[in-house]
Specification:
This protein is α+β, with helices and mostly antiparallel strands and 199 residues long. It has one domain. Helices cover 24% and strands 22% of the residues. The chain has 5 helices and 10 strands, in the order E-E-H-H-E-E-E-E-E-E-E-H-E-H-H. The strands form 4 sheets. It has a 4-stranded mixed beta sheet. Strands 1-2 form a two-stranded antiparallel ribbon. It has a two-stranded antiparallel ribbon with strand order 5-10.
């Protein structure tokens, strides 16, 4: 019996569900529409942020590996971890959310072998903190990239922090990011390359 990793290929979204040999009247697209249309939701927004960064560095061949030790393999050889946050949430709010990002060390797991690392660590070279910065709830649209900003930080800088090694506030992040500068989407690829040089 072959129990190795399943090699997942990108799907077209037109694949029909079946009951044995009988095709049913719904397809994969209907599942995606039902399951991930709320792109403001924390879970889906996090995956969307990974996708945006992957698109910026031309790393969207294949399929996202939810169990990888880090999020993106930049074709330039840079390992990237993406974290996302937002002021606006999909649920009812009394006030805008306070922005913070988790960046804890983690136990890596190799999906090909099923083996865990022995000690927690940060596996990426670069962290991209993706902030859905738009604050007007009626017009929030995560698919409008002008509503996002990004902070690109080498992992070595995060490791050297003397404050929390678990999470970081927006104010602290601004102080850490090179030149205290947020990056717009069109600048993201270049910023990741420059940050990798500091790693």
């Amino acid at each position: 019996m072959d129990l190795g990793p399943i090699k997942t290929a990108p799907r077209s979204a037109t694949e029909r569900f079946r009951d044995g040999e009988e095709p049913l009247d719904f397809d994969l697209l209907s599942f995606w529409q039902w399951g991930v249309s709320d792109v403001v939701n924390n879970v889906t927004r996090g995956i969307l942020a990974e996708y945006l960064v992957a698109k910026a560095v031309d790393a969207t061949d294949g399929v996202r590996d939810a169990w990888a030790a880090y999020d993106i393999d930049d074709p330039r050889g840079i390992k990237i971890e993406v974290k996302s946050s937002a002021f606006v949430q999909s649920w009812g709010q009394k006030e805008l959310s306070k922005v913070s990002f988790s960046y804890k060390r983690s136990i890596g797991w190799d999906s090909a072998t099923g083996v865990y690392d022995e000690t927690p660590q940060r596996h990426a070279d670069i962290y991209v903190f993706a902030l859905l910065a738009h604050k007007d709830k009626p017009t929030i649209n995560p698919m409008d990239l002008s509503q996002w900003c990004f902070y690109v930080v080498p992992t070595s800088v995060l490791n050297a922090r003397t404050r929390s090694q678990h999470s970081i506030t927006l104010a602290s992040l601004k102080a850490l990011a090179p030149h205290n500068r947020l990056v717009k989407y069109k600048e993201l690829r270049e910023a990741i390359g420059k940050a990798a040089e500091l790693h």
